[in-house]
């Protein structure tokens, strides 16, 4: 599998796009993490309600412990105080705990949404084109492998001469059709490889007699 072109400018462009995509994902992750922590900090409200309810219940329990030792009436009074604590501070503490848990779940959800939605949108735009580039580079590398096969070299050179734009051909040879007729296939193969983003090492051909 060929991940990057051989041509320096194209390789640099592909590498920069990959790096920018990676940096964008990191930034989105950090933003999502910040949103999570910002929302999750609101759990302090539920924790405060819980602590207030727990303090009320603890106060009733302490009072019940203090009167529990009084003869005859101490036990019923202590039971009443404990019951009062359970029915006043207990529900408040439970409500605070539930609120804290809900805020925590919302913080996780918002953090994930903040990261995932933009990240998926970014990847949906970048990944298909990048995969297509990798596929084309890999296919071109396989198709343009002409070493040791003179007939294959001739066919690839013909495709270059007949399919590539003139300016692309003239960047590698002054007379592309003349090279094809003379059997000088090397510059034509180099031209079609460069057009695909590859750089191949081609042995010079012997001129056709």
Topology:
Layout: H1 8-40, H2 43-67, H3 74-143, H4 150-163, H5 166-170, H6 176-182, H7 186-195
Helix pairs in contact: 1-3, 2-3, 4-7
Q: Strand-residue fraction?
A: under 5%
Order of helices and strands: HHHHHHH
The termini sit apart by 39 Å
Helix content: over 70%
Oligomer: single chain
Q: SS-based structural class?
A: mainly alpha
Low-confidence stretches: none
Count of alpha and pi helical runs: 7
Rg from Cα: 38 Å
Largest sheet: none
- Mean pLDDT, to the nearest integer, reads 78
The tally of strands reads 0
Shape: rod-shaped
Concise summary:
With 209 residues, the protein is mainly alpha-helical. It has 7 helices and no strands. The mean pLDDT is 78.
Short key terms for the protein model shown above:
mainly alpha; 0% strand
